[in-house]
């Protein structure tokens, strides 16, 4: 029988609002004994949030396929031969109908995604009407439209947008292995425009892309050192799609995913940490551990852009089992 060595002593815990995280410090967090790491994250989570409540967001693809970027994980890229076809933009009425259904199911935030490098002015004009109409339903609004040009974030803000999502995807040192059509600095520049416009930031990344634990530490450190830290941090577990360069990536062990959630919670104690893509492949026990480790938001609905997600009834059942309530 394995026993804990008598000489084991709990290392000094970091301050719950530490700034300027180094990659080494986050890597050290990820390397803590599993139960110790989860316990610390749960403690910090309770300092800033009610652990019985989670935020529910629904994500809808308003423009699917045909993206000129070559992100190695994405089935919507023109560079990859995948089953996802280029589709026209949804109409305002279609988006509003989806938002009404999301609200009826209990979602508090409605997120709109489009497969663009960045929105053209004509495309953005159409999305502004969508934002206004969804906001009028009493939902929080979020958009992810790619790189923004000067003035576009302000237009979205004026239309009633609450959050703009623009993920960093991975650590700076790993980025060139995943994406070649835009630079890391391009992403940071868009995040700067979003902040300048007064929008809240939704920014996270993807794990399970053949990265090392240190790469995961690099991603968390980069996110935690954004000033201010993102209000919402989606953590995606790669969904492998045939035809993408990462279709055969090695699957990340579930314990490493839970460690990533815990480290994100410790490094960003006031952010909502969201279980995002890949949750359909997680069993209930793994999701429960993630909630214990500080995750307090999920994407809620049967589909995430083009990949599957647990259906609403399954999530409602799990929330009931865990005594979790929607915000």
UniProtKB/TrEMBL annotation:
<feature type="binding site">
    <location>
        <position position="202"/>
    </location>
    <ligand>
        <name>[2Fe-2S] cluster</name>
    </ligand>
</feature>
<keyword id="KW-0001">2Fe-2S</keyword>
<keyword id="KW-0949">S-adenosyl-L-methionine</keyword>
<keyword id="KW-0411">Iron-sulfur</keyword>
<feature type="binding site">
    <location>
        <position position="74"/>
    </location>
    <ligand>
        <name>[4Fe-4S] cluster</name>
    </ligand>
</feature>
<feature type="binding site">
    <location>
        <position position="67"/>
    </location>
    <ligand>
        <name>[4Fe-4S] cluster</name>
    </ligand>
</feature>
<keyword id="KW-0093">Biotin biosynthesis</keyword>
<dbReference type="InterPro" id="IPR010722">
    <property type="entry name" value="BATS_dom"/>
</dbReference>
<keyword id="KW-0808">Transferase</keyword>
<dbReference type="GO" id="GO:0051537">
    <property type="term" value="F:2 iron, 2 sulfur cluster binding"/>
</dbReference>
<feature type="binding site">
    <location>
        <position position="111"/>
    </location>
    <ligand>
        <name>[2Fe-2S] cluster</name>
    </ligand>
</feature>
<comment type="pathway">
    <text>Cofactor biosynthesis; biotin biosynthesis; biotin from 7,8-diaminononanoate: step 2/2.</text>
</comment>
<dbReference type="InterPro" id="IPR002684">
    <property type="entry name" value="Biotin_synth/BioAB"/>
</dbReference>
<dbReference type="GO" id="GO:0005506">
    <property type="term" value="F:iron ion binding"/>
</dbReference>
<feature type="binding site">
    <location>
        <position position="274"/>
    </location>
    <ligand>
        <name>[2Fe-2S] cluster</name>
    </ligand>
</feature>
<dbReference type="InterPro" id="IPR007197">
    <property type="entry name" value="rSAM"/>
</dbReference>
<comment type="similarity">
    <text>Belongs to the radical SAM superfamily. Biotin synthase family.</text>
</comment>
<keyword id="KW-0479">Metal-binding</keyword>
<dbReference type="InterPro" id="IPR058240">
    <property type="entry name" value="rSAM_sf"/>
</dbReference>
<keyword id="KW-0004">4Fe-4S</keyword>
<feature type="binding site">
    <location>
        <position position="71"/>
    </location>
    <ligand>
        <name>[4Fe-4S] cluster</name>
    </ligand>
</feature>
<dbReference type="InterPro" id="IPR024177">
    <property type="entry name" value="Biotin_synthase"/>
</dbReference>
<feature type="binding site">
    <location>
        <position position="142"/>
    </location>
    <ligand>
        <name>[2Fe-2S] cluster</name>
    </ligand>
</feature>
<dbReference type="InterPro" id="IPR006638">
    <property type="entry name" value="Elp3/MiaA/NifB-like_rSAM"/>
</dbReference>
<protein>
    <recommendedName>
        <fullName>Biotin synthase</fullName>
        <ecNumber>2.8.1.6</ecNumber>
    </recommendedName>
</protein>
<dbReference type="Pfam" id="PF06968">
    <property type="entry name" value="BATS"/>
</dbReference>
<comment type="function">
    <text>Catalyzes the conversion of dethiobiotin (DTB) to biotin by the insertion of a sulfur atom into dethiobiotin via a radical-based mechanism.</text>
</comment>
<keyword id="KW-0408">Iron</keyword>
<comment type="subunit">
    <text>Homodimer.</text>
</comment>
<dbReference type="GO" id="GO:0051539">
    <property type="term" value="F:4 iron, 4 sulfur cluster binding"/>
</dbReference>
<dbReference type="GO" id="GO:0009102">
    <property type="term" value="P:biotin biosynthetic process"/>
</dbReference>
<dbReference type="GO" id="GO:0004076">
    <property type="term" value="F:biotin synthase activity"/>
</dbReference>
<dbReference type="Pfam" id="PF04055">
    <property type="entry name" value="Radical_SAM"/>
</dbReference>
<dbReference type="InterPro" id="IPR013785">
    <property type="entry name" value="Aldolase_TIM"/>
</dbReference>
<feature type="domain" description="Radical SAM core">
    <location>
        <begin position="52"/>
        <end position="276"/>
    </location>
</feature>
């Amino acid at each position: 029988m394995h026993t804990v060595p008598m000489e084991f002593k709990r290392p000094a815990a970091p301050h719950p609002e530490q700034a300027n995280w180094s990659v080494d410090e986050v890597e050290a967090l990820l390397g803590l004994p599993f139960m110790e790491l989860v316990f610390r994250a749960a403690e910090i989570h309770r300092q800033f949030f009610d652990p019985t409540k989670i935020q529910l967001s629904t994500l809808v693809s308003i423009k699917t396929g045909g993206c000129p970027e070559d992100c190695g994980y994405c089935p919507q890229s023109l560079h990859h031969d995948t089953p996802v076809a280029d589709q026209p933009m949804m109409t305002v009425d279609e988006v509003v109908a989806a938002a009404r259904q999301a609200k009826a199911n209990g979602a508090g935030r409605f997120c709109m995604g489009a497969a663009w490098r960045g929105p053209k002015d004509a495309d953005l004009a159409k999305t502004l009407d969508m934002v206004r109409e969804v906001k009028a339903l009493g939902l929080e609004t979020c958009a992810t439209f790619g790189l923004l040009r000067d003035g576009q974030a302000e237009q979205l803000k004026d239309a009633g947008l609450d959050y703009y999502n623009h993920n960093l995807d991975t650590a700076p040192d790993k980025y060139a292995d995943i994406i070649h059509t835009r630079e890391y600095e391009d992403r940071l520049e868009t995040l700067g425009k979003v902040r300048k416009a007064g929008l809240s930031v939704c920014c996270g990344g993807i794990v399970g892309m053949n990265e090392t634990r240190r790469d995961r530490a690099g991603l968390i450190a980069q996110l935690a050192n954004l000033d201010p830290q993102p209000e919402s941090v989606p953590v995606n577990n790669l969904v492998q799609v045939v035809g993408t360069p990462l279709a055969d990536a090695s699957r990340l062990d579930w314990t490493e995913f839970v460690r990533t959630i815990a480290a994100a919670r410790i490094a960003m104690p006031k952010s909502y940490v969201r279980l995002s893509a890949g949750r359909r492949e997680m069993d209930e026990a793994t999701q429960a551990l993630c909630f214990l480790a500080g995750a307090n938001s999920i994407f809620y609905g049967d589909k995430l852009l083009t990949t599957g997600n647990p259906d609403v009834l399954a999530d409602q059942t799990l929330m009931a089992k865990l005594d979790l309530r929607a915000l």
